[in-house]
Amino acid sequence: MTVLPITIGVLVAGGVYLLCQPGLVRIVFGITLLSHGANLVLLASGVSAWRGEPLTGVGDPAEAGDPLPMAFVLTAIVITLAVTVFMLALARIGHDDDTRHVPDTGEDHHA
Amino acid sequence: MTLVWLLVALAAVPVLAVPLTGALQRRAGWPLALAFLALAAAMVPSAREVLDGGEVTWTAAWLPALDVELALRMDGLGLVFVMIALLIGAAVLVYSVEYLGEGRQLGFYLWMTVFALGMVGLVLADDLVLLFACWEITSLASFLLIARSGSGAESASARTLFMTFFGGLTLLLAVVLMVVATGTTSLSQALASDVWTERPGFTAVVAVLVAVAGFTKAAQFPFHPWLPDAMAAATPVSAYLHAAAVVKAGIYLMLRFSEAFSEVPVWNALLISVGLFTAAMAALFAFQQHDLKRLMAYSTVSQLGLITAAIGVGTEKALTAAVIHTIAHALFKSGLFMMVGVIDHAAGTRDIRRLPELRRVMPWSFATVVLGTASMAGIPPMLGFVSKETILGSMLEAPGPAWVGVLALAAAGLGSVLTVAYSAKIVLGGFVDGERAKTCHGPSAGLFLPAAAPIWAGLPLGLAVWVLDVPVERAVQAMGAESAYELKLWHGLAPELFVSAAVIAVGAALMTRRRALYRRLEVDLLPGTGADALERIFAAAGHVGRRIAWTVAADHPRRHVVPPLVVLTLVLGVGSLAVLGVGDVPATQPDLWRPIDVGLLVLIALGVVATCLADSRVAATVALGGVGIAVTVQLFALGAPDVGLTQLMVEVLTVVVIMLVLRQLPRRFGRSNIRRRGGALVLAGGLGVAAGLGTWLLTGRRERSGPAEYYLSEGTEVTGGDNLVNVILVEFRALDTLGELAVLGLAGVAIVAVLTTIPRAALDPPGWTDRAERIPLRPVAALRDPQARAALLDAQSNLRALQLLLRVVGPVLLVLSAVIFWRGHNAPGGGFIAALVASVVVAQVYLARPEDRAVGPARLHLALIGGGVLTALASGLLGYADSSFLQPLYGTVAGTKLSTSLVFDIGVYAAVLGLVMVAFDRLGATPPDGSATEHTTGGPGILEGAASSPATTETKEEIG
After folding, report:
1. DSSP letters spanning B704-715
2. In chain A, which residues have their Cβ closer than 8 Å to the Cβ of B621?
3. pLDDT tens for residues B379-426?
4. Of A12, A83, A92, the CB nearest to B747
5. Residue A14 in domain
6. Domain residues for A90?
7. Nearest by CB: B640 against A43, A47, A81
8. How many domains does chain B fold into?
9. Which of B711, B695, B618 is nearest to B656 (CA)?
10. What one-character DSSP code corresponds to residue B935?
11. pLDDT digits (tens, 9 = 90+) for B700-752
12. What is the distance in angstroms between the Cα of A16 and the nearest Cα belonging to chain B?
């Protein structure tokens, strides 16, 4: 019995639902939820039975969590920040973030 | 001077061009020309060694794992081309000073010198990979030089690039085949390989590939159209391109490989037939032109055709002819091109039909052009006569039955007759025919002398052609021939002499009836030009590409997002079920969950549902923030304090950035239709279940991993840091972190690039929203609460509290940031978290301002990003002092054990801070077109229920 997979399932489901919506801001929100889910998957791969802080000299090393997935997740969080900010900038380009309507930029969008 | 120093010095010249053009403007051409001449002089000792029969080499390891070397070799052939590139380059650079308009002309000087570098690198390369790289440099440099010549040149430059890159690809293919077959990337070893005699079929394939590559650069049929196209470039560019650089690169390639291919029938047949056809065809085209520059361009195509045919014949005499004609052509064609520029400057036109009778006002130019065209037409005693006659004579040696040689001679003769005719057309059209010149004046010395010098050099060289005996002999020997054919002005009554005489006589006779001839020939013989054909190919390729792209392309992201998600659902879901079906799954570890997980699950689930269902953007943001905080707590609960801290800071900043963006967008989300929402729900449910199932099945079923045990037991000992997550980030896996920094930096740069290049005003008018404006705004004046009204109307007093807070909290946060940074190695903290804490100060500064303004100086954010990435890279390079890139170095300063990974962490800090500043400066500042207020939450009125945005000034302006 474990809880983390359910949490991950909920986050992924919410993320996917938002990803399928029209509107870039909702898509960004979806990506945020998906990244939360993905980060928890990474941490789960370190096995959530060991939950001590991986700090030498603090607590019992036998209880410490796997530091490697944590480093991955830390990197992932910052990359998510970069991607989120970039996509938000894109959402701001037009007067609306609706992804069904292509704003007229003078470029040819369709073949 | 060794070869490598020549190349290093040549590479330094473009770098020097930047400050020089800044200081001297267009006069930078003089010192640059001087640099070329000095380099040519410095090469004299090496040249002497080559002329004495030796060769100069230099080698260094480049890609040792692939056996690719930075190998340079100068033999006789290389020497000829190096000298052409440097000396003609110097003349052209001097000429450019007077020819170009006022101004810095940085692009011109930069790419011209890069061009020379590429050319010299090409002819000195003794490694196939290096050869290919230099080949592409000349392609790119010529493209850039043509492209910078105004709007008319854009399509011409694209066509040039297309042709030369096609040739580049065939060369690449040939290089790969050669390397695979001969087992070496060394050019000289590959050429001397036995493969060429042992495998005739393979040899034929490679020979054709090399020939095609050579044809594209040397503008041989059917790749010739780019060269007349390229005359859209400035005249000095054309002079260099036609005489010494790109096209000569094609000739060089064919000459270099003739050592291996001169006995291959398909090589002989292809080069001779294409060369002679091109020579005659282009000579006819040249005769049709009345633009002198265009005429010259076709003339180059024609002359190169003759050289190509001679290389195809491949005998000693023919190769001698090819080399000597390459030299002669470099001299007269560079000079003639520059003389066309002289005429253009003097008369304001280069159209033969409009040029007045210039010989009286420009007698020296007249004489120079007469000499140059005489050399081109092959009239004694010019060098062009010697070379042309040798080519004609060598045609009789064409391999195969005797009639082949006779036919080749006849074809070359036909081309030469037309050459005489168009050469005469230049002289007669430019200087003799036409009305009496009134307003023209002669050229300045600075323009005339560099143009005339190469042409005049052809006279003594023709008379004393024996001075070229040794260099030409060495060049021909470099191609595997025993010795060169002896060059003489007078060879006795050889067949070629009669042909030469006949060619000149017929050409001259034709020109006596030139008016009738012009009328007959100056018409379109063909329905379209090569450029048109190429444009049609482009259009067709574009059409096909769009049709292919149509199957997958969509402006709506759903089409890109849904298929991978469906596949992921199937793989994960079906895969998990299959694993369960097999049944051999290890048991889960005990204690995988704690009670707090359940509470967090409930909070997260509520937040996710609220985020999905919210109709208002602000409400969804609040719910999303809630989920973020719950996830943060979950991270702490999993024993990951660093990750938790990072997530917390990121969460705060993300929400602030979202609010910055939301105030420029409609208040509510657009709605999708029921059917689509149903589909999304099914997919979301499916992938959610699959993800949960997969996680449950595939994690938590083993002991702590080996790496974890290693880091936990050895990590601190190796690095001296107690915080294992941080030491993994900045030491063990610093390369990952460096890659992440690059992503971060790129995102920041991309935001700046996108938002500065797409002004909102250029997009459609606002208003295309399905229901965004349905909720009416309440006018501020109607607000009953005087405090609320005052808060909205007066931004300044509204912000007092925030400003006071900042005064206290700002310094505290900055100190905290420094502490967190410093302690990162041993306790939760480090560059990421510290930078995010500092970012909160940036956010505070921004929010406490009454108007939307950038937080720091204009380009501070880009400087931080760039500086951060460079700092991290530099700390990585320090690692080479020990063993490898990013290897940390340790030292003890004042009793504290320090590591260079601290420098790396400073880079991380700066880059993260830079990205956040980009977000505030670019997303927070009011767009220049002022359209932000058109239908945003900050418009004239306030939203019911929703918080007001920081854009208070806009509110004030609207109302005031």
Report:
1. SPHHHHHHHHHH
2. 29
3. 888 888 888 888 888 888 888 888 888 888 888 888 888 888 888 888
4. A83
5. no
6. 23-51+65-100
7. A43
8. 2
9. B618
10. S
11. 888 888 889 999 888 888 888 888 898 898 888 889 899 999 999 999 999 98
12. 5
